Amino acid sequence: xxxxxxxxxxxxxxxxxxxxxxxxxxxxxxxxxxxxxxxxxxxxxxxxxxxxxxxxxxxxxxxxxxxxxxxxxxxxxxxxxxxxxxxxxxxxxxxxxxxxxxxxxxxxxxxxxxxxxxxxxxxxxxxxxxxxxxxxxxxxxxxxxxxxxxxxxxxxxxxxxxxxxxxxxxxxxxxxxxxxxxxxxxxxxxxxxxxxxxxxxxxxxxxxxxxxxxxxxxxxxxxxxxxxxxxxxxxxxxxxxxxxxxxxxxxxxxxxxxxxxxxxxxxxxxxxxxxxxxxxxxxx
Length: 284
Known about the structure:
single chain; S-adenosyl-L-methionine; 2 domains; Rossmann fold; alpha/beta; 3-stranded antiparallel β-sheet; Arc Repressor Mutant, subunit A
């Protein structure tokens, strides 16, 4: 909750805009914190510094030496003004809407065709914002894996949301035809471009035919039975005509590898990405 508090009050951005480490009096003045709450804010900032989100430094102000807070690599990733900000992802993970959905289990049992997330009306908006921020971070990883996409003429990003990842791929490979495939209500009002189109559908039924299928942060959401169904549909979607060797590209945790053979794939190759993710190429 300290992390949620920090992001919601834009504290990393306040320190960044301050252009130097910020003292507690300066911070509470900008935040307009009531005098009765200054002690609690001090405790929260010290806890966040202890957790590695801020660095406590000593600065000279006039003739006095004061304690101040500076950004660290962790808090720089939470700058909302940054193109690579992970602040929306933090807000999604810690949003009450997400936790509230798990208090709706009784309603979910009796409501036909509703998922837990559908019951909480705000979840779609904050989820799409979170996935977009994660995709911007993935931009760095994808630039290092350009060989994965070379030689492809078409690719479908399954569960691609608003198309942030697909747009990154389109920019890097202007001749590659990209399809963003997601639920109809997600893509119905989105506009494509010359090499980017949006298609609504159900990945458990069928996936558009292409040279390659991209699954980014999809499989970990499902139980093994559903994951295998998705992978089998991906296998059906990729083309092996004219000497092409279609493939499925997965960006997720490495533990997914055990399911590949069960879904009918014969070979795979793993490339490490930033953090705990891997890029996995699967071949039928």
